[in-house]
Amino acid sequence: MAEEGSDADEAVEMRDLADHFEMHAIGVFTQCYSGGEERAKRLLVRVSRNWGKTTCLRLALEANCKSFVALSGVQVEPTSFV
Fold it and tell me: Which of 18, 42, 47, 67 is the most buried (most CB within 10 A)?
């Protein structure tokens, strides 16, 4: 959405929000992963109707959330997730 903003200020604000939520996603996934790798992996690929019948991993990839995708827990057996 940041790239589709009508003005530069709006685009900056949306990018800031995207970064903010990416940092929260990293924190949540890191906590989940430290509590159990297999369960965290399942969270990555769980299809949710609330997210348009997609997975959080697919959303992260489509949003170009490089920091999230680069997490070691996300990189475990990537071909089975993507």
Answer: 18
Q: Beta partners for 54?
A: 48
For residue 20, what is the enclosing H or E element? helix 8-35
Put simply, whether the predicted model's pTM sits higher than 0.85 gets the answer: no
Output the CA angle 36-70-19, nearest 5 degrees: 100
The count of other CB atoms within 10 Å of the CB of residue 59 is 15
* Tens-digit pLDDT profile for residues 33-49: 999 999 999 999 999 99
pLDDT at res. 79: 47
How crowded is residue 71: how many other Cβ atoms within 10 Å of its Cβ?
A: 18
Q: Do 43 and 29 contact (CB within 8 A), yes or no?
A: yes
